[in-house]
Amino acid sequence: MNTDNCRFCENNLSQIFLDLGTTPLSNSFLHKSDLNNDEPFFPLQVYVCEKCYLFQLKQFKTPNEIFSNYAYFSSYSSSWLKHAENYVNMIVDRFAFNQNSLVVELASNDGYLLQYFNKKNIPVLGIEPAENIAKIAIENNINTTVDFFSENLAYNLKNNGKQADLIIANNVLAHVPELNDFVEGIKILLKNNGIATIEFPHLLNLIKENQFDTIYHEHFSYFSLFTVMNIFSSHDLEIFDVEEILTHGGSLRLYIKHKKNNIFSITDNVKIVLDKERLNWMILIHINYFQIRFIYLNKN
Ligand SMILES: [Zn+2]
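Above: the input record for the complex with zinc ion. Below: its predicted structure, written as tokens.
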């Protein structure tokens, strides 16, 4: 499980970007009866792949161990609920989804987002591995399958006549150890003319704003647009639009389609964000260079 290779391109990982020592798993809260026992600690080191520039942690625990009984209920955050409602209104307006569409959300949590499609009578399917959380969604009449999303699950759904007009994956990509399997699953599940939207915290903000507290064992990967584009491209998927949004310290929302789908043209936003990344990398690399020179000169 603790592989030494990049989870996207399988290049050997040797370059550490940030070393935060060792910590227990976050969200693995202790019971009173655990207090006299040893608590396991795991290394918290972010590697950067020198081939594809995916920033990533090595994996020490299976998703099953981390996510099967999860402590985070999305509906507890009223600002996140508002974000979800605004998104649903926007996406239904922009792409005209209706009663004949199917919306699938990967890691649908307690149904915090799909409830707004339900209200518009647009059919939904949530996929959520945490049984304790999926239970809440099901109780609220939100059609939910309790499982991890994978290529296999996507094939099963497709073989049962279920393909999506819209796939939503918010803040889940970072939690996925088998990245290629997950993205291939999106390709399989997405109708020919369907779209997927994906949100994740932007690596650029993590670096610029020193958001080191967003680094923990549940987050296996940290994404730039540049790297994520290559990941989707290798699965014949194409990013045709991107928005910079304020959630989680500054995130990206990507709009994705099949490469062979020519209905949507690629907006200028994609190039704008890529250019921003390029420019900022150069500045950051220079700042680091001068800081290192400065430390060196002071020492000597
Ligand atoms: Zn790589």
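Notes for the reader.
The longest helix spans residues 268-299.
The longest strand covers residues 190-201.
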